[in-house]
Amino acid sequence: MTSTSKPLNVLFLCTHNSARSILAEALLNGMAGDRFRGFSAGSSPRENQQPNPLALEALQRVGISTEGLRSKNWDEFAKPDAPNMDLIITVCDNAAGEMCPVWPGHPATAHWGYPDPSEVDSSLEEKQAAFRKTLHAIRQRVELFINLPAAAIDKLTIQQSARDLAKR
Fold first, then answer.
1. pLDDT tens digits, 108-161
2. Which residue among 93, 131, 145, 154 is least packed, with the fewest CB closer than 10 Å?
3. Is 159 strand, coil or helix?
4. Where is the Phosphotyrosine protein phosphatase I domain positioned along the sequence (predicted)?
5. Reported CATH class of domain 8-160
């Protein structure tokens, strides 16, 4: 891809779209320049769901913008006027096993599983540490992904490339 190419749209999915998928969206957008564009959504966000404040705090601590982040239902991305996705990555095991909508353009898919940092039920410091650990793990994979050579992210190989990164 060149800098004048259309960016690849990547949708990160989780159940509630409050932590892992939000982290992945923000990291991709903060790290990828104009080569990729990240989005996130959930299969079943709770009513009035908001991004987890500890996820936003973890992003801000590493200098990643949280502007515009919001929890949303994946149905937003199955509508005819939604941006077409090139790759959909589930980041939690629940969303990986759910029946997904039919996505316009039939994007490639992959699963990058991470433990849910919001399930840590202990001190604030331990909760913050769980979010930092998850952020770091996602950041490593995103960094590998955005540094793949152009041949590894063409329409025919993007799915396998993204799936291979789940093994790292």
1. 888 899 999 999 999 999 999 999 999 999 999 999 999 988 877 775 577 777
2. 154
3. helix
4. 8-148
5. alpha beta
